[in-house]
Structure formats: C-alpha cells, structure tokens
Amino acid sequence: MYHGDDAYMWEENRTKKYKGIDIIEFYQKEAIKRKNTIPKKTFYNRFLKIGDHIMISKPYEEKFEEKRYKISLYELLKNVYYEEVFGINISSKRKKEVYRNNISFENFTIGDIVLATSPGFHIQGAIRHAAIFDSRRYHGSVDDECLLTAEPNKGVIYESIRFYHENFGEAWGLYVPNTTLQQRIAVVDEIAKHIGERYYWSAHKSNSKVWYCSLVPWRGYYKITGIDIDYNDGYWVLPIDIFMSEYTEVFEYSRG
After folding, report:
1. Which SUPFAM superfamilies does the record match to this protein (predicted)?
2. Which long-range contacts does 227-230 make (Cβ < 8 Å, 24+ apart)?
C-alpha cells in the first residue's frame, strides 16, 4: 500500500527508476527489512554502562570488571589498545587487535545507516563509527565507495564497504521506518553537498560548519525530515544514540 507522493511516484514510474533508484527493488528490500527486524534488546548484553548514561563496548575479557571504568579517563586510556579516539592518537605498548565482520549490504537501500564497533573502551561510546548508505554508488563490490561519513583529517567523505569489513568486529544495518524514497534520496543528496567539509568532533551538533561520523546521518535526517534520531537529545549525537533511537530499527548484523 502506497500513500501520497509515494503512490503518485509508483503510478508514474511503474517500470522506471526514480533519481537513479529502481523503485520495485527499493520496495522489495523494504519488505525484507521489515521482516528481518532484530529487536535492539538482543544486543544490550554487548554493552556496559558508566554511571547512568554513557555506554561502552563489552570487553572480550570477562574478568575485566566494571569498576575498572570508574577510574579517571587519563588512567584508563593508558591501559587500552591503540585507538583513534575522535582523531586523537593514543599510543599503547600492546599490539592492536585486528577485528573483522562480514555485514551484507544486499538489502540496504538508500539512506540506511551502518554502525560499526570493536571491543574495548571508546570515547565515542558503545559504537565507534557511523555512515549513511548511497545505493547509487554500490555495484556489488566491497571496494565501492558508497558510505557517507566523516573522518579526522579528511572531513566528509565516501568510504568503501571494505573499510568497515576490515576494521570493526561488529556492524549493524539500521533504517528509519515511515520515511519515503524521496526523503531518503534527499537526505543523502543533502549530505553529499558537504563532501570535503571539516571534521571536528567536539562541536555542538547544531554547528552546521563541521562534522563527525554520526553527525552525518543525524543531520541529514533532521534537516530533510525533521526526525531526530538522537535518542537523548544530547550535546553530541553519538553512534550509540542512533542505535538507541526510537526512530531507527535494526535489520542487519554481523559479528566477526
């Protein structure tokens, strides 16, 4: 059943593409995503909390007690693996672990969100990275640069699927239900206008001149649809905020 603009577009473009998107394929994949929705509570035991608010990835070491996180940030960071934390390189005496996942993008449609993480402490919260999917740039290869995000020293960029497969131990696919194909195209097109603009992690999320990874999908959806996918309306919008949002649903997951 289609309504409003979607119904008109469907009748007028029954055998055509709409702004580069195959309409029939889009709705087929939407139906698959609704069928494959995974309850978010399925993943809650993957995370730990600091106090009542910040959430961090559950370490592999089961004996690594939560009280270890009660110490100062400085003391904690001295003991973690080398991480790139919001663009700040933190050295470590231990070798960095290699993490991988194999999340499939076959059921992703334009405007879907990918979140990715690896075990251990991250200032970003339980989930380290976020991007938004542009299906028009995906041709079935892991080397297709089809994920809009923002990175330190690079700003807003397109990244490849390979980057997500080879740098994170877990990844999730999420979508924003009750948004139209036109809206999702507009979300991606809006963000693409800002390719190359500056990365700056500590800026308030309302600062439209700078970016960080999870700000990319949040700002696109907020500006185009008015939907706020930041679940706690904080100073920043972190990847975990997008995961926890009542306006997003999980339809894909991979753990290495």
Report:
1. Cysteine proteinases (SSF54001)
2. 227/176, 227/179, 229/176, 230/205
Report the C-alpha gap between 220 and 228 in whole angstroms: 10
Cβ–Cβ under 8 Å, residues 231 and 214: no
Q: What is the pLDDT of residue 204?
A: 86
Report the DSSP pairing between strands 113-117 and 129-133: antiparallel
**pLDDT tens-digit profile of 80-129?**
443 444 343 444 444 556 789 999 999 999 999 999 998 766 667 789 99
Q: How far is CA 46 from the centre of its chain?
A: 17
What are the residue boundaries of the structural domains of the chain, listed by start? 25-55+103-255
Task: Concatenate the DSSP letters of all residues of 201-253 into one string.
Answer: TTS-TT-TT-B-TTHHHHHHHHHHH-----TT--SS--HHHHHH-TT-EEEEE
Q: How far apart are CA 211 and CA 58, in angstroms?
A: 27
Residue 145 and residue 245: Cα distance in Å, rounded? 26
User: Three-state DSSP class for 142?
Assistant: coil
Residue 197 CA to residue 55 CA, distance in Å, equals: 29
Q: Which residue has the tokens 């993943």?
A: 43
Helix (H), strand (E) at residue 76: helix 73-77
Residue 223 phi, psi (nearest 5):
-70, -40
Contacts of residue 67, defined as CB under 8 A and 6 or more positions apart, other chains included, come to: none
Q: Indicate the DSSP class of residue 122.
A: -
* Residues 174 and 248: beta-carbon distance below 8 Å: yes
State the architecture of 25-55+103-255 in CATH terms. Answer: Alpha-Beta Complex (3.90)
Quote the pLDDT of residue 59: 52
